[in-house]
């Protein structure tokens, strides 16, 4: 008997209001390490991406240190995100209702929750963010190592590096856009950020946005 | 006591006036420069491959002038020594043994490799550090090491595989065309040292004319395809070659036939940069606009009640805001 997509530590506490445990301390710590790395990578990467943002190198102590530290932050992010992946991948598997949810994106954006199918711990939008992050981080670490010339210059030729640096820039642009969607959704859908700070959401939030997950927490896993 | 007196002339270290400087920059990496008020006469180094005897005096002169120290290396069993450019070797002789398919003669091709000082420099285009690579109106492309960040983008930008990054200070190095010597009216150290005048230096016009004379001479001696290597794909270069087989530059240790800045680099430094910033700004803007239009997506009291019913929460509800 397996849970639909309840994750370790998820629990419901009846009361007024109902409180629902959504993320464990470990998951939150893991998330914020990753988030910090991603922001630092975006700032240092953008500084080297376009001359108009070169001034951002000052945050890292100048151009040389920005260049030196960026790949190392990338390594930390890679392993940190790997931790998130292990925690979250199962609940992010694509389900039948996700297609319906995505097809009704207009209703999502106009906050017509009543027209959307009940979804589990993550909705299709969150799943798209999760899998985009996964693929883009893999692309970025692979292309990044190819252009980490301080240590790996000898392992690929210049033509390969040219493609790698272009792909790295494109993937970085994409991941920053995904990050904007992720952050915006967390801000727009009020009551969400508490999940990653306090670890809890209200029952009403879970009812409104992740009803299937809430039902399952209340009734226990469905027998198969 | 010595019975003679020999006095060296004073070293020319006083009253040296430089003939060009910062104000003559026409390009500066990752930044703009004001249009210079004057145009310097374009200079060029002409390397006549047909006159080179492979003595490496130019290599030595380069090390000498640029005060570059080498570790004792190894003999790899070939004439190429050192084998490649390094952060402390700005020029190397590349030796090729080539059998001319028409004459069946073995031709020993020797090409002095180093920065070509492109009119359209790929290194400068790729460089993200403002002012780390500069180009003067006389054509010299120079690196300003104080501003270099060691990212190696210049390596990716260069169509000739010239810049080398020091493992010691993580900065890029290459031939400066002896910009410091040129600034005081001297020619590059390599040209000065060349015993056969295979390397000559002057204005680009003079060097082009001189090359034509050399090409005429080579053609009269059976090198029908002798020609000048001044590749238009990079806007021409300020280091040019006279080649006896100008139709086949690749036989000279893979000299690029039609060098130009890689399309990948152009795409990366061109469209990607502008499109990337635009897309990121658009995503952020759509977020702001969406929030202004729809307002926050808030959980309603009914949602909380439903959850309480579902969980069987008992007792009087606390007052909610």
Task: Write up this protein.
The complex is a heterodimer of chains A (224) and B (321). Chain A has 224 residues and is mostly helical. Chain A has one domain (11-219): Fumarate Reductase Cytochrome B subunit (Up-down Bundle). Helices cover 64% and strands 4% of the residues of chain A. Chain A is built from ten helices and three strands. In chain A, helix 1 packs antiparallel against helix 2 (63-88). Chain B is of the alpha+beta class and 321 residues long. Chain B folds into two domains: 22-248, Alpha-Beta Plaits (2-Layer Sandwich); 262-296. Chain B contains nine helices and eleven strands. The longest helix of chain B is centred in the last third of the chain and has 24 residues, at 271-294. The model of chain B has no long low-confidence stretch (mean pLDDT 94). At the A-B interface, helix 1, helix 2, helix 7, helix 9 and helix 10 of A face helix 3, helix 7, helix 8 and helix 9 of B.
């Amino acid at each position: 008997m397996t849970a639909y997509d309840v994750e370790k530590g998820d629990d419901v506490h009846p009361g007024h209001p109902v409180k629902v445990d959504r993320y464990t301390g470990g998951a939150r710590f893991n998330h914020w390490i990753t988030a910090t790395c991603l922001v630092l990578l975006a700032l240092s990467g953008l500084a080297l991406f376009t001359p108009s943002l070169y001034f951002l190198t000052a945050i890292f102590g100048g151009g040389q240190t920005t260049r030196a530290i960026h790949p190392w932050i990338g390594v930390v992010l890679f392993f940190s995100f790997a931790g998130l992946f292990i925690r979250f991948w199962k609940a992010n598997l694509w389900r039948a209702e996700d297609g319906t949810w995505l097809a009704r994106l207009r209703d999502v954006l106009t906050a017509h929750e009543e027209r959307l199918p009940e979804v589990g711990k993550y909705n299709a939008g969150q799943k798209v963010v999760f899998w985009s992050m996964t693929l883009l981080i893999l692309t970025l670490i692979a292309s990044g190592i190819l252009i980490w010339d301080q240590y790996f210059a000898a392992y690929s030729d210049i033509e390969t590096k040219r493609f790698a640096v272009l792909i790295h820039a494109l993937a970085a642009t994409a991941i920053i856009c995904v990050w904007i969607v992720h952050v915006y959704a967390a801000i727009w859908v009020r009551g969400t950020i508490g999940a990653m700070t306090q670890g809890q959401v209200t029952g009403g939030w879970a009812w409104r946005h992740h009803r299937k997950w809430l039902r399952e927490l209340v009734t226990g896993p469905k027998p198969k | 006591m010595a019975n003679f007196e020999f006095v060296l002339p004073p070293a020319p270290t006083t009253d040296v006036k430089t003939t060009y400087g910062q104000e003559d920059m026409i390009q500066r990496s990752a930044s703009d420069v004001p249009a210079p008020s004057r145009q310097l006469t374009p200079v060029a180094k002409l390397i006549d491959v047909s006159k080179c005897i492979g003595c490496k005096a130019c290599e030595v002169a380069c090390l000498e002038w640029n005060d570059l120290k080498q570790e004792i290396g190894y003999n790899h069993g070939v004439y190429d020594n050192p084998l490649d450019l390094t952060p402390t070797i700005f020029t190397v002789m590349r030796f090729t043994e080539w059998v001319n398919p028409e004459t069946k003669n073995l031709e020993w091709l020797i090409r002095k490799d180093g920065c070509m000082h492109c009119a359209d420099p790929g290194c400068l285009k790729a460089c993200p550090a403002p002012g780390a690579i500069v180009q003067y109106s006389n054509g010299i492309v120079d690196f300003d090491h104080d501003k270099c960040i060691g990212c190696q983008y210049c390596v990716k930008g260069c169509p000739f595989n010239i810049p080398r990054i020091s493992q010691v200070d993580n900065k890029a190095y290459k031939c400066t065309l002896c910009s410091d010597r040129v600034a005081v009216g001297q020619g590059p150290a390599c040209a000065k040292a060349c015993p056969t005048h295979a390397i000559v230096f002057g204005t680009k016009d003079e060097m082009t004319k001189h090359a034509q004379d050399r090409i005429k001479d080579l053609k009269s001696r059976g090198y029908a395809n002798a020609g000048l290597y001044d590749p238009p794909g990079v806007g021409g270069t300020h280091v040019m070659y006279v080649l006896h087989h100008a139709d086949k530059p690749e036989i000279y240790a893979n000299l690029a036939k039609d060098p130009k800045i890689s399309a990948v680099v152009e795409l990366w430094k061109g469209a990607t940069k502008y499109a990337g910033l635009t897309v990121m700004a658009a995503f952020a803007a759509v977020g702001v606009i969406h929030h202004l239009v729809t307002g926050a997506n808030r959980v309603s009291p009914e949602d909380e009640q439903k959850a309480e019913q579902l969980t069987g929460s008992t007792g009087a509800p606390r007052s909610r805001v």
